[in-house]
Amino acid sequence: MYRTDVYFITKNLAEMPFTTFLPFVFTGISYYMIGLYQPAENFFICTAILILVANTAVSYGYLLSCLAKDINMALALAAPLLIPLMLFGGFFLNSGTVPNYFIWIKYISWFNYGNEALMINQWKDVEFINCTQSGHVVSDDECLNDGQEVLELLSYKTTNMGFDIGLLFVLIVAFRLVAFLLLLNKTKRKTVKVIDE
């Protein structure tokens, strides 16, 4: 009924309020309950990063759904393609310990960019960490003194914040563009040959 480009653009626009509003609500409810860094600026930066991460994940979902021929194939592709992105995104492995032959996975993982940006937002301005646990002082070799030490331990650099945010935008556009091209290829009308008898 509609041209492919019109359908794809309107679907993206129709879902945009949800992919913006829901991360905002999620962050608004949980941010201060968790006890993250208090200033309002950091809250809004965290919210913006999570909105970008959510939109990147939705873009990846578009790509998978346009790649697969049906829902069963999309579900079968999702886990094997998503798990490596999560593994090398900084949650499970320190980003400085990723082997060189797997480093390329880290660079296409929105988990990596989102995690680094969120960690920088949380820790870059923390000047002192109170090193006590349940009333017991932790030894100096177990204690990190400030946010910079936390970021160094995780192999993150504060100068990468703009880079991470920029690459989240790039991944959103790239995933949606590839998804659109795949959908366009699927919906392309095939020419019918008329055979004269």
UniProtKB/TrEMBL annotation:
GO molecular function terms noted in the UniProt entry: ABC-type transporter activity
Localization per record: Membrane
Keywords: Membrane, Transmembrane, Transmembrane helix, Transport
Protein name: ABC-2 type transporter transmembrane domain-containing protein
Main location: membrane
Entry's transmembrane regions: 12-34, 40-63, 75-93, 165-184
Membrane topology: Multi-pass membrane protein
Organism of origin: Petrolisthes manimaculis
Example of a GO cellular component annotation carried by this entry: plasma membrane
RNA-binding as UniProt keyword: no
Domain ABC-2 type transporter transmembrane, chain residue ranges per copy: 1-123
InterPro entries on file: ABC2_TM, ABCG_transporters
